[in-house]
Amino acid sequence: MLDRLLDWMMVCTLREWFDRPGGHPPAWWAAQRDSVVGRALQLLHAEPAAPWTVATLADRVGVSRATLAKRFTTLVGEPPLTYLTRWRMTLAADLLVEQPSSTVADVAAAVGYSDPFGFSAAFKRVRRVNPSEFRRSSAASDDRGRDAAASDGRRG
């Protein structure tokens, strides 16, 4: 319950921040308001593991491949499949940390990769570290944070 409330508060805060005069929202924020690109973003976020191509995405949005590719790149700042790869790697990073018992192959499948080696290569290209190293470094970070919090509690 508290997680949902915090999520909602964060969304409201971001909306206010991005919509203020002189605000500089990220490109994807403004792109959500476009009828074509906004719909494409909704689909990519709702079904990140789907076997998307620009053609299938354009078909679902109801425009040509060329129209979607040009409009998406103009508004978001990168092509649709590049955006999708980054989004998948963001989701994968969360899964690697939140589900420590999941294998790299499990995480790969969850974000749309049938080949764990292809997933690992994509993850390393985007995150500059392979999935196993990412998981280890995140776990070590969490341990250091817990140790610091515990020592602060003993001092108080």
Keywords:
globular; AraC family transcriptional regulator; Arc Repressor Mutant, subunit A
Brief sketch in words of this structure:
This protein is an all-alpha fold and 156 residues long. The chain contains nine helices and no strands.
In the predicted model, the low-confidence regions spanning at least 5 consecutive residues are none
Radius of gyration: 19 Å
Our count of domains comes out at 1
Helix/strand structural class: mainly alpha
Principal-axis shape: globular
* DSSP helical segment count: 9
Helix content: over 70%
Total DSSP E strands: 0
CATH architecture type:
Orthogonal Bundle
Largest sheet: none
| Name of the CATH first level | Mainly Alpha
**SSE string, helices as H and strands as E:** HHHHHHHHH
Q: Quick one: CATH superfamily?
A: Homeodomain-like
The overall pLDDT average reads 87
- Terminal CA distance reads 29 Å
At CATH level 3, the topology is Arc Repressor Mutant, subunit A
Strand content: under 5%
Task: Give a description of the structure.
This is AraC family transcriptional regulator. The protein is mainly α. It has a single domain, classed as Homeodomain-like (Arc Repressor Mutant, subunit A, Orthogonal Bundle), CATH 1.10.10.60. Helix content is 76%, strand content 0%. It contains nine helices and no strands. The protein has helices at 2-19, 27-31, 35-46, 54-61, 65-76, 80-98, 104-110, 116-127, 131-155. Helix 3 packs across helix 4 (54-61). The longest helix has 25 residues, at 131-155. The chain starts with a helix and ends with a helix.
